[in-house]
Structure formats: C-alpha cells, structure tokens
Amino acid sequence: MVDNQRQQKPNKAMWLSVIPGLGQLYNKQIVKGGILLVVFLLELLEIVVLGIPALTGLYSLGSVPMQDHSLFMLIKGAMQLIILALFVIFHLVAMRDAKLVARQMNEGKKVPMTAKETLETIYEKGFPYLLIIPAYLAMAFAIIFPVLVTLLIAFTNYDFRHIPPYRLLDWVGLKNFLNILELSTFKTVFTSVLSGTLIWTLAATSLQIVIGIATAVIANQSFIRGKRLFGVIFLLPWAVPAFISIMSFGNFFNDSIGAMNVQVLSFIEKFLPFVDFGIVPWKTAPFWTKVAVIMVQGWLGFPYIYILVSGILQAIPADLYEAATVDGVTVLQKFRHITMPMIFCGCSTDADCTVHF
C-alpha cells in the first residue's frame, strides 16, 4: 500500500500541465518537466513575436493599400492557426502524460525520473512516434495548410477587382457561397463543375475497380503462365511517374495523329464494319475530353485495386472452388458466389464472409 502522504492527485497533475512541465514537476519528473517548460517558453515567445501580429493581420487583412498585402497577411495568419493547433495538441499531450504518470505512481509502478530513464523510455515506447511525428508535421504544412488558405480566401472578396497590394481584401462571410445559389452565372458554372466532378469521380473510380478486379482475376487463374510478368506489367502505371504517363496520354489522344484515333479506333472499325468512329475530338470537345480523362485516371489507378484483389484471391482456400466444382457449379456462379463475396469481405471488415450457393 502506498503511503497516503505520497499519493499523487492525477487531476491536479493534469490541470497543472495546462502550463506544460508543471504537472511533470509535481510528479517529481524534473528532467521531463524542465524540457516541457523550455518548450512552453519558446511557444510563448513565438506567440508574442510572430503569432499575435499574424493573427492581427488575419483579422484586419491590412489597412493601407500598397503597403499591406492582404493575401500575404492571410497566408501568415493561416500558418499561425496551424501552429496554434499544434500548440493545443502539445498542451493536451502534456496534460494526459501528467495524469497517467500520477496514476502509475499511485499504483506503485516505476516511472522515469532521471534523464537516463527518460531517454530509455522515449526510445522504448516513443520511438515509433518520433518517426511518425515528422511525417504528420509535413502533412500539416504541405496538405492542410494550402487547403486552409483556400478555405479562408473563399470568405473574402478576392477577385480580379481586388488584387493585393493595389486593393485590400475584406472578409465577406458567406456572400460568395450565397452568390453561387442566387446569381445565375455563378449557379450555371458551379453546377457544371460540380456535376462534372461527381461524374468524373464515380466513373473513374468504377473504371479502376472494374479493371483492377478483372486483371487480378484473370492473372490469378491456374492456367495462366508467367504470372510474375503480368504482375510487373500491371504495376507499370503505378511505377511510372504520373506526369510522364499524362504527357504520353496527351500524345495518345491527339485528335489528328494520336494512336487512339489512328490505330486503336481504326483497328476496332476493321472488326466492326458497322461502326464508324471517324476522328474523335478528344482534346477539343468537352464531352470526349472528359471521357479521355476518365480513361487516363482508370489506367493510373487500377494497379492499387489489382494488388489489393490479388492478395485477397491468393488467400481464398482452394477447397471452396473444388467443392463448388464437385457440386456442378459453373464458372460464373463461382465468381458470383465465391470470388466476389471474398473480395468484398477482404475489402470490408464488416462484411459477411459466409459463402452461399
């Protein structure tokens, strides 16, 4: 039984860590508490020197044209918002750590006190986090930051009549979004772009899934030879950099000399005399351009589905197919009642993996 005089109060340790380090010092973790306090002081320095001016600029977006640049002030403010979010996470982690350590001390468990013990604990328990944190930080500034800036710009009057630094930006709230619904010009453009995006997403995703499943099922048949070669070929769209593939497809879909019009469609017309494609304007007609983009995205994305489905197919017990053959089940019935349910089961943790005939 731990002496009551030495009992730590987890909630007290947690609330003391609102200022990171105090809770750790309360738990007698001098080294950890000192490090967290230093980080907290650096945090305060950043907020005073950089944070407050950045947030003030984000709020006002400038007051003197040609001197204040509203867009730069907005960008700096967005950056500071992300930094503040990281500071909040830092405080929450410190509070949670202080509370957990206090509980462990009350339970008589050993907690790191010295610098050596702290480093050993970080290496043993925190090493994965040390590897992951840089990636998350990079993601925050490379992905979240541009999205946040774009989102903030959507609430300003940024247009060709308000281009900093000649004209300052102003916050207009939801006016831009209401204009999409109220102004016919905006509504037409928005509806066209939104419908095109939805069609592209559904069609491209469906095409990737169909091609990926088809290639995986065919390549994993027992009578197919050279499966590794097929695997390498099917992975080429993934291995080749996307911009190189897109440039190649730009030539492939050229209206006059592209391989799609000159070779592929001409080849199809020889076997289907009643079909006459003519010269398809892949790059000049909006409809055919969308079709071409969907085809390109299907090519670029199907290798992921191929790898996923191939792994699932190789894990399906051969006994299922042998039992189905004995029962006189056709190939299509095997695909419908064994292969597809197993693929769906492998892609979803909530799926019913029971096979029914």
UniProtKB/TrEMBL annotation:
Residues 194-357 form the ABC transmembrane type-1 domain. Coiled coil: none annotated. GO terms for molecular function: ABC-type maltose transporter activity. PROSITE patterns: ABC_TM1. One of its GO terms (biological process) is maltodextrin transmembrane transport. InterPro entries: MetI-like, MetI-like_sf. Keywords: Cell membrane, Membrane, Sugar transport, Transmembrane, Transmembrane helix, Transport. The chain crosses the membrane at residues 35-59, 71-95, 129-155, 198-218, 230-253, 287-309. GO terms for cellular component: maltose transport complex. It is found in: Cell membrane. It is a multi-pass membrane protein. Part of the ABC transporter complex MalEFGK involved in maltose/maltodextrin import. Probably responsible for the translocation of the substrate across the membrane. Belongs to the binding-protein-dependent transport system permease family. MalFG subfamily. This is Maltose/maltodextrin transport system permease protein. The lineage of its organism: Bacteria, Bacillati, Bacillota, Bacilli, Lactobacillales.
